[in-house]
Design brief:
By secondary structure, the protein is α+β, with helices and mostly antiparallel strands. About 20% of the residues lie in helices and about 30% in strands. The mean pLDDT is about 95. Bound molecules: magnesium ion. Magnesium ion binds near residues 98 and 100.
Length: about 300
């Protein structure tokens, strides 16, 4: 069971759930569920980020609601009309933190040394973009690259957490494209300047479509990330090939800045990054999580 955020025809942001390959309106179902349980005063769950921040985003919660509704009335009553207008699963993170050079072959392809401890940087939250929306190439910045990555969304405040407790702070997993103005990044690196601006243009952070509860994925090492541009496979790696694993990343980050619920962590990209051209379709896929697709404008 996977969750997502979407925009209704009336312009409302709501929570959806994917169950048995169909998409349902979870926000609408939640209101009925509360009545079924005689608790009309239960929390409002209009926004997936609210559910995450309330530490309420668990597979058990999603299942309990969907199964209770299924007992009471046909689930098709909550079926979403297609096409669904997806939004980023969490739309207002306090920060987006990204790990750089977390796959050996990718560090080598850009001529960088393999790091001995995690390298991290951030993207502006205003760069967030959704599934099936356009990545806009800014004028006069030269080469712009795709970077397919596994993303984690923080579910509990994490400050100085040891690796053994790190994953308990994660609400779930998603897919992210760490779009990068590569020429600008290289020039800034060479000049000893931060490369924040090359990562932060509007539309440079597609994420989604789904947020998969952490407990749904027990063996994250086996997850296979594939990136296709115009249908051709360009990046392919498993999470086990990361230099720094997921728990190590969360623990390390939390020693430098407090992770807040709703924050997004991008875990680094494998080898095979490349230039985007206007008209390209970029697709980032991990079968168990979904497929994030964007067209380049
Ligand atoms: Mg990256």
């Amino acid at each position: 069971m996977k969750a997502f955020s979407f925009l209704t025809e009336d312009g409302l942001i709501q929570i959806g759930v994917e169950y048995q390959e169909k998409l349902y309106n979870f926000s609408q179902g939640w209101e009925i569920y509360k009545q079924l349980k005689g608790n009309g005063q239960g929390p409002e769950l209009g926004f997936l980020q609210v559910m995450v921040e309330a530490d309420f985003f668990q597979v058990e919660t999603l299942q309990e609601v969907v199964f209770a509704l299924r007992e009471a009335q046909p689930l098709d009553d909550f079926l979403l009309k297609t096409p669904v207008r997806f939004l980023p699963p969490v739309g207002r993170p306090q920060k987006i933190l990204c790990i750089g050079r977390n796959y050996q072959e990718h560090a080598k392809e850009l001529g960088n040394p393999v790091p001995s401890e995690p390298v991290f940087f951030s993207k502006a939250p205003s760069s967030l973009n959704a599934h099936e929306q356009e990545i806009k190439l800014p004028p006069n910045v030269g080469r712009v690259d795709f970077e397919g990555e596994l993303a984690m969304v923080v579910g509990r405040r994490a400050q100085n957490v040891p690796e053994s407790q790190a994953m308990a702070c994660i609400a779930g997993y998603s897919l992210l494209n760490d779009v990068t103005a590569r020429d600008m990044q290289r020039a800034d690196q060479k000049a000893g300047r931060p490369w924040f601006r090359s990562k932060s243009f509007d539309t440079f952070c597609p994420i989604g479509p789904f947020l998969v509860p952490r407990d749904m994925l027990s063996n994250t090492d086996a997850l296979q990330l594939n990136v296709r541009v115009n249908g051709e496979v360009r990046q392919s790696a498993t999470v086990s090939q990361m230099i720094f694993g997921l728990a190590e990343i969360v623990s390390y980050l939390s020693k430098h800045c407090t992770l807040e619920p709703g924050d997004i962590i991008a875990t680094g990209t494998p080898a095979g990054v490349g230039k985007l051209h206007s008209g390209d379709t970029v697709e980032i896929e991990i079968i168990e999580i979904g497929s994030l697709k964007n067209i380049v404008k």
